[in-house]
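Hi,

Apologies if this is the wrong queue. I'm a grad student, and the batch job for Stage II sporulation protein M from Cellulosilyticum lentocellum produced an output file that my downstream script rejects. I'm not sure whether the problem is my script or the file. Here is the sequence I used:
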Amino acid sequence: MNGDYLLKGRLSVLKEMGGVLILVLAVFASVWYTFWIEGKNTQTFEVLYTWLTQDYMSMNLMSFGYIVIKYLKKVFLIWLFGWFGLTAPLSWILLFSMIFSYGFTTTALILLFGGRGIMIGMFSYGVQAILAVSVGIEILKRSMDLIGGARGQVKKQYAKLLIPILLVSAIMASLDLGIMNNVKILIK
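Support response: The file is valid. Your script probably expects a header line. Output copied below for reference.
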């Protein structure tokens, strides 16, 4: 009986603080890694600059679908791995890697462009990153309810998360197509 109480207490703390903890750890790790590779002679910064200056697809249904799938893949895998208790740690790792990549790119932009790097990051992927990370953290919270033993209604609510995941992916794709062609103005 006492063991069940301790397990539920730990799960509730992990549920409330787990996403924030992953967020903080991933941001610190990405900033540290960016500064670490800056001293090395790598081509990472050149690749990032090339990515920002390339010509993007015109807005059509095919490119919109491709970008929706790109964003949907990340968040859907977090949702899918959170469904099962055994694979739940993989959802945490996926969220960490997603936040790490956004933090790394932001830090690299700041190193490349100074103050303009913050604006370039916010305009090129900032809103999309905030949406994706927020949805990822919410999925982790809901998956902790599944792991905690609550099944019936919680399982139905967890399955209903697919609708917001699809909507957020479509919004992120729309923002991506609408904004990325104009980011070159900030670079020049």
